[in-house]
Amino acid sequence: MQIEISPHVEQKIKELIARGAYASPEEAVEAGIESLPYPEPTMESFVAKIKEAQADVDAGRVDELDMEGIREELRRRIAQQDAS
C-alpha cells in the first residue's frame, strides 16, 4: 500500500528516524497507528456492549430518561452561547 502524507507529517517522521526512535518510515507509521487510543469497533464488541447495557437495565442500574430536563438544559446552554 502506498499513501500520501503531508509535508509536515513527513518531516516529523524524518525527525523521529534521525533521533533513532524508528528505523524506517513504515515502522514510525505502524507505531503511530498502533498507539491510537480506540480499537476499530467490531460486531462482537457492538454485541457485547448491547448485552452489557441490557444487563444494566435488567439489574435496575439505569435512571429514567428525563427528556424535558434534557431539553431545558439544551435551551439553557444555547441561551448562554447566544449571550456570549
Protein model, in words:
- This protein is an all-alpha fold and 84 residues long.
- The chain has a domain at 43-83.
- The chain is built from 4 helices and no strands.
- It starts with 6 loop residues before the first helix and ends with a helix.
Shape: flat
Question: Mean of the pLDDT scores?
Answer: 92
Strand content: under 5%
How much helical structure, as a percent, in the residues? 55-70%
Regions with little confidence, pLDDT below 50 for 5+ residues: none
Assembly level:
single chain
Largest sheet: none
What is the gist of this entry?
This is Type II toxin-antitoxin system ParD family antitoxin. The protein is an all-alpha fold and 84 residues long. The protein contains four helices and no strands.
Feature tags:
ParD_sf; flat; mainly alpha; Type II toxin-antitoxin system ParD family antitoxin; 4 helices
Architecture blueprint of SSEs:
Elements: H1 7-18, H2 25-34, H3 43-58, H4 67-83
